[in-house]
Design goal:
The complex is a heterodimer of chains A (393) and B (228).
Chain A: H1 2-13, E1 22-31, E2 38-46, E3 49-54, H2 61-69, E4 76-81, E5 84-88, E6 93-94, E7 102-105, H3 117-122, H4 130-143, H5 159-171, E8 177-181, H6 189-206, E9 209-214, H7 217-223, E10 226-231, E11 234-239, H8 241-246, H9 251-256, E12 261-271, E13 276-281, E14 288-293, E15 302-307, E16 313-315, E17 326-338, E18 341-347, E19 356-362, H10 363-369, E20 376-381, E21 387-389
Helix pairs in contact in A: 5-6
Chain B: H1 5-35, H2 41-53, H3 56-67, H4 72-81, H5 89-114, H6 117-125, H7 130-141, H8 143-158, H9 162-167, H10 178-187, H11 191-219
Helix pairs in contact in B: 1-5, 1-8, 2-5, 3-5, 5-8, 6-7, 8-11, 10-11
Classes of the chains: A alpha+beta (393), B mainly alpha (228).
Chain lengths: 393, 228
């Protein structure tokens, strides 16, 4: 009896295999009740550290997390953390949720409302002797700076406090993987940053993969060691946040990454010695030539070009003496204030019929240039602000 | 004018017994109704709700037949104890259990189903078995529904008439409940006695329900249960 208990406790409290990688192989999950039948179909690895799962709502992010946690049963594939297989259709392995050791913090946090903070945090430690439970609860409460809330009801917490309790409750169980489904979405940036610092600190010791779901671009760039872009159940791109988000090779990723202007162009000339090429955008008023960075693809091939609205300069007279290579005349059709930026729509006469470019300006720029609909302007675009992507199917 | 205190005691005994047994039997049935994904679950739900719409005499009649010497259950009981279940207190409890089943199970199931599924999922990801999740999360958060179910069962059993008459008859101290007593008094034109007894039953039921609902509102809605 004593030995059995000891063995049981050993498996339950054994430290997570350090550096273990989450490996997802051909995971398929069908949601037949969705209109048009949604199918999640992904393969990827997630190493220790922050892995950002980025995509629009409906991309299948939560379905993926639920499958990994065991809350949803995949239709096919394999899920493993290091040597520990959680699900494998072929060898009929499907470890029950409670035995997976996968920490999961929901968007709603799901704190147990009828318990104190302390009871919430010690909930996952029943397999331990009382003294160990108390000790671990105490140390995680201190680690997440919520020791003073221990006796407080889970109902009486602020947003930031609730997030800390939810993280502590999950991490105290020593999971071998942490899933975070936008748990910090509703928080102010400074509060969020402090919680992330504490989470990073915790993980510098434990070294587990963290899969963090977000649809915020800023979070992808600020947090991630690795980003996986998910859309309509498929992985579109993955890599470092900088590679994926600032130079997307696919149009859907570009849209997600905030490229407001995307249009089709044909390669007119290549200059390998300068690392640039000239692309032609045909339109009613005659073609416009745009100098862009060099990519593979010969003269005459069709490409898509993406330009961020914030990367375009706007001038009220034809500019001279510029280092920027692209100057395109146009006329403002509308000005739309969003928070502290102004989104100007500019009709570029020379470009494709009806094509408008979006340009983001400050309120001060709008006022000092006396911009208004109908005003004639010139768009200034640097060569390296033009991002080239594979033409969309 | 005198009140049949024996009938009152018997009725209370019956109501307490039925409430206690339905607490034990009703929780798993309600849990299954709330969480099962079986396609034909609606059939079970309809079966459980049947006593609400059936005339008590119909239910009582079938219980009587089932308990009698012609049914396998009745024969088994007679071979075990030497007497029939019909016209005994135990028979009365069995009939009342069936009759009050929906009054316990429906509030139980409704409150289980209203518990945030994310809390149940969170409990599982924290390593808790389904049984532990039920006793630590689902049940504590369903206390108002459970209390409502018990209060309804208790009050419903207190005022029961048709099933008692069919299954138990009118044996003083064994199956003669308050509602039978009132009926008897009216039959023998003892209106004053009927009135006194009826009024007492009415006040008693009201008091029980008022206390239960009052406690339910105050105690369970604020703060962690049982920890001040």
């Amino acid at each position: 009896m004593y030995q059995a208990e000891l063995a049981n406790e050993k498996t339950a409290t054994a430290p997570a295999d350090p550096g273990a990688v989450l490996r997802i192989d051909n995971l398929v999950k069908r949601l037949p009740n969705q209109p048009g039948e949604f199918i999640l179909d992904v393969s990827f690895d997630a190493a220790a550290g922050f892995n950002i799962l980025f995509g629009p709502s409906g991309a299948g992010k939560t379905t993926l997390l639920d499958s990994i946690a065991g809350l949803a049963k995949p239709d096919a594939g394999r899920i493993a953390i290091g040597e520990h297989v959680l699900f494998d259709l072929l060898s009929r392995i499907d470890v029950p949720v409670a035995l997976r050791r996968v920490g999961y913090v929901f968007q709603s946090l799901a704190l147990f409302p009828h318990m104190t903070v302390e009871d919430n945090v010690r909930y996952g430690l029943t397999h331990l002797p009382d003294a160990d439970r108390a000790q671990r609860t105490k140390s995680i409460l201190e680690g997440f700076r919520i020791a003073h809330l221990a006796k407080r009801s889970a109902r009486q917490l602020s947003g930031g406090e609730s997030q800390r309790v939810a993280l502590a409750r999950t991490l105290v169980t020593d999971p071998s993987l942490l899933l975070l489904d936008e748990p910090l979405a509703a928080l102010d940036a400074p509060i969020k940053a402090r919680i992330f610092d504490d989470l990073r600190e915790w993980n510098s010791v434990h070294g587990i993969p963290i899969l963090y779901v977000t649809h915020s671009r800023e979070e992808v760039l600020a947090l991630g060691d690795h980003v996986i872009v998910l859309d309509a159940g498929r992985i579109l791109a993955q890599g470092t946040p900088h590679d994926v988000m600032s130079a997307p090779t696919q149009e859907t990723v570009a849209q997600l990454a905030g490229f407001e202007n995307i249009f089709t162009a044909v390669v007119e000339a290549v200059r390998p010695e300068r690392g640039t090429m000239t692309c032609r955008i045909s339109g009613d008023g005659g073609p416009v030539l745009l100098e862009t960075p060099l990519v593979r693809g010969g003269v005459g091939s069709t490409l898509r070009i993406g330009i961020r609205a914030g990367d375009i300069l706007l001038a009220t007279s034809a500019p001279v003496g510029l280092s920027a290579r692209n100057v395109i005349p146009g006329r403002i059709t509308s000005l739309d204030q969003r928070d502290v930026i102004v989104a100007a729509r500019v009709n570029c006469r020379a470009m494709q019929p009806g094509l408008e470019m979006e340009v983001h300006l400050t309120l001060a720029a709008r006022d000092s240039l006396q911009l208004a609909p109908g005003k004639e302007v010139w768009l200034v675009i640097k060569t390296h602000s033009c991002h080239l992507m594979q033409a969309h199917g | 004018m005198s009140i049949d205190w024996q009938a009152f005691a018997l009725t209370l005994q019956l109501a307490v017994a039925v409430s206690a047994i339905l607490l034990v039997l009703g929780l798993p049935v309600a849990y299954w109704i709330a969480f099962s994904r079986w396609r034909l679950k609606f059939l079970v739900e309809a079966l459980v709700a049947l006593p609400i719409v059936l005339p008590p005499t119909v239910l009582g009649f079938y219980v009587l037949v089932a308990l009698g010497p012609r049914s396998p259950l009745g024969r088994w009981w007679i071979s075990l104890t030497g007497h029939t279940l019909a016209f005994t207190f135990t028979g009365l409890v069995i009939g009342s259990l069936l009759y009050s089943l929906p009054f316990a199970v429906q509030p139980f199931a409704a409150s289980f189903a209203a518990v945030d599924r994310k809390l149940i999922a969170a409990s599982a990801t924290l390593g808790a078995s389904p049984l532990r999740t039920f006793f630590r999360i689902t049940l504590p958060l369903s206390i108002p529904g459970v209390i409502t179910g018990l209060a309804l069962t208790f009050a419903h059993t207190m005022g029961e008439f048709g099933v008692v008459l069919m299954v138990g008859g009118n044996i003083p101290g064994v199956t003669r409940t308050v509602s039978i007593d009132i009926f008897d008094r009216v039959q023998s034109s003892d209106y004053a006695g009927a009135n006194a007894t009826a009024l007492l039953l009415l006040l008693l039921c009201f008091a029980v329900l008022a206390v239960v609902y009052g406690v339910n509102h105050k105690a369970w809605q604020i703060g962690p249960a049982g920890r001040a």
